[in-house]
Amino acid sequence: MEKIKNIKDTSIEVLGECNIKSPLCSKKVNYLSPDERVIVYSRKEEFDYHLKTLGEIPMFEKAGPQEKIFFDPKETVCGIVTCGGLCPGLNDVIQAVSITALKLYKVKKVLGFMYGYKGISSKSKYPPIELTEDSVKDVGDLCGTILGTSRGPQDPDDMIDTLLQYGVNILFVIGGDGTLKGGMALANRIKERDLKISVIGIPKTIDNDICWTSRSFGFITAVGEARTAVNSAHAEARAAYNGVGIVKLMGRESGFIATHVTLASSNVNFCLIPEVDFELEGENGLLMQLEKRLLRKHHAVIVVAEGAGQKYFDKEKLGKDLSGNQKMGDIGLLLKEKIKEYLTKRGIDHTVKYIDPSYIIRNQLADPSDSEFCLVLGQNAVHAAMTGRTNMAVGIINEHFVYIPIKMMIGKKKQVREEGELWKTVIAVTGQ
Amino acid sequence: MEKIKNIKDTSIEVLGECNIKSPLCSKKVNYLSPDERVIVYSRKEEFDYHLKTLGEIPMFEKAGPQEKIFFDPKETVCGIVTCGGLCPGLNDVIQAVSITALKLYKVKKVLGFMYGYKGISSKSKYPPIELTEDSVKDVGDLCGTILGTSRGPQDPDDMIDTLLQYGVNILFVIGGDGTLKGGMALANRIKERDLKISVIGIPKTIDNDICWTSRSFGFITAVGEARTAVNSAHAEARAAYNGVGIVKLMGRESGFIATHVTLASSNVNFCLIPEVDFELEGENGLLMQLEKRLLRKHHAVIVVAEGAGQKYFDKEKLGKDLSGNQKMGDIGLLLKEKIKEYLTKRGIDHTVKYIDPSYIIRNQLADPSDSEFCLVLGQNAVHAAMTGRTNMAVGIINEHFVYIPIKMMIGKKKQVREEGELWKTVIAVTGQ
Amino acid sequence: MEKIKNIKDTSIEVLGECNIKSPLCSKKVNYLSPDERVIVYSRKEEFDYHLKTLGEIPMFEKAGPQEKIFFDPKETVCGIVTCGGLCPGLNDVIQAVSITALKLYKVKKVLGFMYGYKGISSKSKYPPIELTEDSVKDVGDLCGTILGTSRGPQDPDDMIDTLLQYGVNILFVIGGDGTLKGGMALANRIKERDLKISVIGIPKTIDNDICWTSRSFGFITAVGEARTAVNSAHAEARAAYNGVGIVKLMGRESGFIATHVTLASSNVNFCLIPEVDFELEGENGLLMQLEKRLLRKHHAVIVVAEGAGQKYFDKEKLGKDLSGNQKMGDIGLLLKEKIKEYLTKRGIDHTVKYIDPSYIIRNQLADPSDSEFCLVLGQNAVHAAMTGRTNMAVGIINEHFVYIPIKMMIGKKKQVREEGELWKTVIAVTGQ
Amino acid sequence: MEKIKNIKDTSIEVLGECNIKSPLCSKKVNYLSPDERVIVYSRKEEFDYHLKTLGEIPMFEKAGPQEKIFFDPKETVCGIVTCGGLCPGLNDVIQAVSITALKLYKVKKVLGFMYGYKGISSKSKYPPIELTEDSVKDVGDLCGTILGTSRGPQDPDDMIDTLLQYGVNILFVIGGDGTLKGGMALANRIKERDLKISVIGIPKTIDNDICWTSRSFGFITAVGEARTAVNSAHAEARAAYNGVGIVKLMGRESGFIATHVTLASSNVNFCLIPEVDFELEGENGLLMQLEKRLLRKHHAVIVVAEGAGQKYFDKEKLGKDLSGNQKMGDIGLLLKEKIKEYLTKRGIDHTVKYIDPSYIIRNQLADPSDSEFCLVLGQNAVHAAMTGRTNMAVGIINEHFVYIPIKMMIGKKKQVREEGELWKTVIAVTGQ
Q: Is D299 helix (H, G, I), strand (E, B) or coil?
């Protein structure tokens, strides 16, 4: 948690009362009391601040299996959809949700909708595929997503019609900010139409920038592979006299991958992220700092998140993408050019190597810690769904999995705080 | 955190008042107030229970840099020693401590004592080596420990004499339960002799079984490599008609590696740990359950922690090791034999393959998440030491690094609770 | 090639004349002339020796597609069977054979017989599975063999009956010495019964000890993973004062893995293989040499092939296995005990760590160079089969794939020559 | 070997007679007769063709230690220099040469010249570093080159002066075509000045495009990492409806990496290399073929070597680089744009992802098979040098290491033959 915020209502929407006994073998499972909560702030100063400001201690519902459930498994059809960019662990989550629903809750069927929300549209040319224990058995060994993906929303009513057509009672939406917004719109419309369909979000952000969850699946794997790219940049830089290696990493609004890879490697000299402004020119500017570093050590590595330094681009020229988002300038290429120009002007013989490993990073297999995270995340998503919870997503906070209303997670990105410990540690390590 | 316990005094011993301004560049570092605390229990029921029982909320000191320090860097000599078995990340911690002390605090010198506590003994044949920024630069690329290691304690007074001889003001001891005990004895003796030498523990346990820290370095890397062994066992099992793969993993008293690899892999059918008793014979015994699994699927994988099933060995026959600890029987071999015997008796054609990957696991390089963990752990150990804290170790709880009195960490192992969520998740996944 | 031998008749048995035009698109494929040959000896002294002795230059048939084939694809059913121990690349070979037969030659069907030759027996409880382009698409991502495996021969006539029952015209047998013997017996019996079924061997030996092929699939991958184990042993050895790391590797009769890992790592001090006798005791014995090394460097790594030093075991006590082969003593354990005993007697404080990584090694995924090797190997096996060749196997010699009569490959193992370059290089590197 | 050529004089230049007994322990080493040769052509039709055309069988000198050497080890100083682009295994070669010279031949000293030929120039600001057994012990764990590198030649006389200044008798030059040319110029000038300095080339080409050696170090490792990128592209392609993944790989004049990764992966649908012309437009053009593939399978992977399709660029606009070489257009980007344009025009909804993994590929650690190759390569370079051979490089042909006059290796690149087996296998696998 990087930021102190006020939080108000953390209670989860439900479709109705839970009257059905859970099929999870009673002897072997510890059911969770529905009253279980996890305290959001474990740092005393945050805790005290909130207690004082709000008059209460903010808490989220703890995730886990409950004794009574809402949906009758033998009449329950689950749907799964993956949206947005690829991320390590997608197939692990699909596997975890499917196996938990089929093997533990013994639901009737699990359907995978193809190619994101498009696959739930009535215009979709590709029907959902049935996911069975056998068909998902080995999918953790494949990168990408076996369900395919796409970007952008679809009309809620149109999607609801498809869900009704296939008898889907529960829809798991795996995706980022936009996808969760779409999930919320869908859940809201379902409520308006008074239908009993649960929509459960499973937050996916390789940048780890979704609010109220301290970890998102695939992030740790991504940092791991980013380190490989940093090591390559370092070797390139070190092999040349005055060699500079630049690695551009994911992170449009949040620089968590860039900061964490800086801490996971001892080879980064400059870490640039969207949250912390920097100058190219001037005494404390990157170029002069880089020159000093080169004169001292004759090599340097720069890690830059893609959203950093956007002030150096003309937004109007860049234009907007199909979803209406501002396009971003390629900060890695700009740095490369500016650095070459500057060092040439300064008469310093040099080499600049630029690496953009994004597609390789996002197509790694989940490392074991992410695999386990995906498993428990998927299980808890199913536990939530079976009790009729809806319009919520699963997160982790203070080492406990929790349920969070989707509306709290969207619209605002979690960011690295310039004044926070994480960034200070980066400063301490790089000396930048 | 698997267990609710009463905790009493979490305050940290100090050598004296902090009167020296920290050399960490003031503009760029957020100093921590010495009053910062981290709440131990974030789960509401545990929180409430402790509030009720103790009348207070248990908290640990939050780790981090402070504005005033105790030791004058230019007169400070740090010592580092690594003890006990190897573990991924040892060299990363050595690097983090050295670089933080030298580059951030600008201490006079860092010495590495060789081969564990033996190297601090006056009888040691190998003098300490000086660790410099250059000499530790690439040690993260080497597995093992560049300082060597050994087991067993040394006489505190003898060690103090060595520390005095080399002018060491701060000693970082990296090791497990026994090592921390040795560190406490040393700190206590230092206090009795009224010396101003700080002893800071950095808990090392590949089994993740040290109390009051939810994570220990190298553990996640170990689970990762254990998964490779499980996948091998699974391939062996699947390739044979009625193939059984057994993987024995570390864990004398605690089965965290075995449980987590079970969750990180989808291929484990039976997970056996020291904390949960099991029977070989009888209706619910392992052998009959295994037979059922084989008849259904024709292959099975068993993961067993080395401390599991010790009731099947004659302790007296096994004897004790040099440190006086009860020796353990090889449960992996015993399972192999019992299973072969049983299946042969039952007329079931079978193959049993037994894998013991322990030495390969503990000699992996730290994965990126462990590298980062080691870095911040090492930094916080130095922050603690420079303020004159002593007789304490660094841990992590609720996502925050904290300081913990050594005496709280030793003597008792953290264990997997049979009734806890972790084990229940294992049961759900394996169906055992 | 380690050894000079006389070779006589290298011609390949055929089922009949090739009258059918190959379906491989004529424009794009270079057909091989049936007269293409590969010279076995490229070293001048060997070449000259054979020319003089035999009066001719020994050559093998060059592998590759030919314009005319024997089997009519649309009536051809292929069978595949994998026998013996696991080896990296098995699934890659299965994939290559299946895809080549189905997609290039457009044969009617490919069947996978389950669990080795047992699966071709009439007593088999598990019918063959059909292999399709889709079903083998991703099998290269799985270790082990999707067809299962077993050891031991079956009655040729019984197997022929099964082949006839399923209409199999071509059987690919993937396995080692015993498997190839079984294949030859089968091909001979087929000939006696005047049937038109081709039997093509694909030599599988993780030890790389099959004659007349300079490389076998999986071997390079195996050496790679063996290096990981050696690095672990090295880290263990270096971390202890007078630490000794022992790695036992595959190699019952031939020490190729042990020798090559010694060359691929710079950390091996003693390499022991079945082909080169060694003594434990005496001036030049291992124990005294080890002591000298420890006194000089305080750590040592020993790599030992499982078949080395068998003279130290009582063969009668060990007995024979089910196939009637002499069982082997565990040379790794023996070394561990003898070394501990010796060093204790000599009053040298020490630690000995013993690693047996065999099952992990043989369950690696094929590395890219092995994947490519498996692909071309499998393709050439199909090219051979379609032309009605039989009773032969595919090998590689002087960088060309060739066809070799099975009878030349069996009965005798390729070995490391004590006087050869390979072993001399080992001696030079280890200084042993 | 892809190509049949005439070769004439393969004899190696020497500095003088070998009169000194080699210090390699005589008992343990098999000395090579100076008459040992390796036959270049092992394929019968090539062999016969050359015998007929040349009237003799072309042979190279076999590499290996000889009984008599030219240089007196105790007066010998070796120099090593690495030039050009990075490549996996550079540090392994440096290690092999250094250890062989120091430990086996016991030469006086080994010097590493820094940053390529620049470091041998009298204008160099960075003196050579001494390489010792200790300093090169662990360099195989580092990627890049510890000696640094640069491009371009230096004045031979100037370099000779530096060599004389440091008393260097033997210079090992590790580099590609340009570097070897520089080495030849140096050796020729040394001869003119009647000096006794040996220049030995160690061919380095990640593209494997140097003539007369069937393998160059780092190539197999490069193909391995290229496969990772191809798998990423495949996952991206498969996740999108009509997804296209493009991977640009090294290979300005020769497409060996592209072709071999196509064979090592089963996921490539189109492989484009400089040697084989292709069209974008028209019935058989890439665009229409790609469309067909998409309509059939909805995803496709294209692998393209950087030198392919250069006809689509305006050479004059591209200009020349500092060394006077024609600059190349970015064929990967061009393909991306052309494909997007075409598919958009055709009304096909699609996604194109472009990956350029070059810097990550060339900074991998050598895989074990390359490590061993580097070791033996380096050893043979030293064996050659010590006997006074000069103006030659070490290669491998028909599985034997050989000595080749530098003049034979330069000026012309080894290429994939459109009519050869390798390319035909690619065609068979991709169906392109």
A: strand
The answer to whether the CB of A352 falls within 8 A of the CB of A75 is no
Q: Which residues of D are catalytic?
A: 207
Smallest CA–CA separation between D360 and chain C, in Å? 16
Tell me which residue in D149, D356, D360 faces A232 most closely, judged by beta carbons.
D360
Q: Which fold has domain A13-217+366-409?
A: Rossmann fold (3.40.50)
Q: How far apart are CA B370 and CA B368, in angstroms?
A: 5
Q: CA D308, CA D334: separation in Å to the nearest integer?
A: 11
First to last CA, chain C: 24
Contact call for B142 and D142, based on CB within 8 A:
no
Shortest distance between the Cα of B224 and any Cα of chain A, in A, equals: 5
Which residues of B are marked as active site?
A: 207
Contact check, Cβ <8 Å, A360/D86? no
ipTM of the complex: 0.91
Selecting from B263, B399, B419 the residue whose C-beta is nearest the C-beta of A214 gives B399
Name the residue ranges covered by the structural domains of chain A. 13-217+366-409, 220-363
CA distances from B45 to A40, B49, B52 (A): 14, 6, 10
Tell whether the model's pLDDT for residue D352 goes beyond 50.
yes
| Closest CA in chain C for residue D63 | C421
What pLDDT, on a 0 to 100 scale, did the predictor assign at position C25? 62
Q: Confirm whether A13-217+366-409 and A220-363 share one CATH topology.
A: yes
Question: Does the distance separating the beta carbons of A241 and D126 come in below 8 Å?
Answer: yes
Q: Residue D201: name the closest of D229, D174, D162, D167 by CA.
A: D174
Q: Give me chain C's average pLDDT, please.
A: 93
What confidence tier does A34 reach under pLDDT thresholds 50, 70, 90? confident
Write the Ramachandran bin of A50: left for phi over 0, alpha for psi from -120 to 50, otherwise beta: alpha
Those residues of chain B whose CB sits closer than 8 Å to some CB in chain D are 138, 141-142
What digits encode the pLDDT tens for the residues D384-396?
999 999 999 999 9
Asked if residue A10 lies in contact with residue A61, where contact means CB atoms within 8 angstroms, the answer is yes
Judged by CB atoms closer than 8 Å, whether chains meet at C43 and D369 is answered as no
Shortest Cα–Cα distance, B92 to chain D (Å) = 16
Of all residues in chain D, the one with the smallest CA distance to A148 is D239
pLDDT at B428: 86
- The residue ranges of DSSP E strands in B53-197, in sequence order, are 59-62, 68-69, 77-82, 109-112, 129-130, 170-175
**CB distance A349 to A31 below 8 Å:** no
Q: What is the pLDDT of residues C354-382, one digit of tens each?
A: 999 999 999 999 998 899 999 999 999 99
Among A35, A134, A141, A207, the one annotated catalytic:
A207
Contact C240 B143 (CB under 8 A): no
Numbered residues of chain D with Cβ closer than 8 Å to any chain B Cβ: 138, 141-142
pLDDT tens figures, D19-52: 999 988 655 667 888 889 999 999 998 898 888 8
pLDDT digits (tens, 9 = 90+) for A386-415: 999 999 999 999 999 999 999 999 989 999
Binding-site residues on chain C for chain B (CB distance < 8 A): 86, 114-115, 118, 126, 142-145, 148-150, 228-229, 231-236, 238-241, 353, 355-357, 359-360, 362-363
- Contact flag C398-D428 (C-beta cutoff 8 Å): no
CATH homologous superfamily of C219-363 equals Phosphofructokinase domain (3.40.50.460)
Query: Which residues, given as ranges, of chain C have pLDDT below 50?
Result: 1-3
Q: At what angle do helices A219-239 and A256-264 cross, to 10 degrees?
A: 60
- Of the CATH numbers 3.65.10.10, 3.40.50.1100, 3.40.50.970, 3.40.50.460, which one belongs to the domain with range A220-363? 3.40.50.460
Judged against a pLDDT cut of 60, whether residue A27 lies above it is answered with no
Q: For residue A367, what pLDDT is reported?
A: 92
Distance from C-alpha of A213 to C-alpha of A63, rounded to nearest angstrom: 13
